[in-house]
């Protein structure tokens, strides 16, 4: 639940209060940003368990390293950077041990938001599945850039700050990723009436937030481990 004490408190002040010993300040940061961190992690990793673990790892790291934050970027950018790094670490490890095909139906079902799976028109659901299946074939760095820019609608400059790379690198990763996706999605121009590029554009304009199916009962506490329950374990 929201803590009325923090209604007018900025993210920076919450982090400062956490460092100073306020027990509930970090929990409020988690409440504010958990959904978007979860959305990025889920789309980057394509697996609910892995995404939940990555978000938990990231928030534990942020909880412990809060005193090192120097305000050179927004707190939300800092949190996203830690989360993306945790995802990329897991993606690299998973790549070396992956045995299941990327188009496994059960795995793809997990990529769809609960509300979208239940309510989206069949055509959009199928297009979304194919887009995400193709996205899962990309190298982790390209996937992360495309998730931020094309699916979460972050400006390139903000994505660059999150990924801690130059804007040119983000543009290059997006361009290479789109080039690799195009042959996988060209068939969507026929029959479905929607190209892969326009599907990415539709995602870009909607900035989907993917909340966990069940909110942890203690999400307002300062314990970052509580987030794992909010990761939507199936």
UniProtKB/TrEMBL annotation:
Disordered: annotated span: 189-234
Family: Belongs to the sigma-70 factor family. ECF subfamily.
Domain (RNA polymerase sigma factor 70 region 4 type): residue spans on this chain: 129-181
Protein known as: RNA polymerase sigma factor SigM
Keyword Transcription recorded: yes
Organism this protein belongs to: Streptomyces salyersiae
Pfam family, one: Sigma70_r2
Domain (RNA polymerase sigma-70 region) ranges: 29-95
């Amino acid at each position: 639940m929201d803590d009325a004490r923090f209604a007018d408190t900025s993210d920076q002040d919450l982090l400062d209060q956490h460092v100073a010993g306020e027990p509930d300040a970090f929990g409020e940061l988690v409440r504010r940003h958990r959904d978007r961190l979860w959305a990025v992690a889920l789309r980057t990793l394509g697996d609910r368990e892995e995404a939940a673990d990555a978000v938990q790892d990231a928030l534990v790291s942020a909880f412990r390293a809060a005193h090192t934050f120097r305000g050179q970027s927004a707190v939300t950018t800092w949190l996203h950077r830690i989360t993306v790094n945790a995802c990329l670490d897991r993606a690299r490890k998973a790549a070396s041990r992956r045995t299941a095909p990327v188009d496994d139906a059960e795995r793809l079902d997990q990529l769809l938001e609960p509300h979208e799976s239940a309510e989206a028109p069949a055509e959009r659901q199928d297009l979304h599945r194919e887009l995400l299946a193709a996205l899962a074939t990309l190298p982790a760095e390209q996937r992360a850039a495309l998730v931020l820019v094309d699916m979460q609608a972050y400006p390139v400059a903000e994505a660059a700050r999150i990924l801690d790379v130059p804007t040119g690198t983000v543009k290059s990763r997006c361009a290479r990723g789109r080039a690799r996706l195009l042959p996988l999605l060209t068939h969507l121009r026929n029959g479905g009436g929607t190209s892969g590029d326009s599907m990415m554009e539709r995602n870009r304009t909607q900035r989907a937030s993917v909340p966990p199916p069940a909110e942890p009962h203690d999400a307002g506490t300062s314990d970052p481990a509580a987030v794992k329950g909010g990761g939507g374990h199936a």
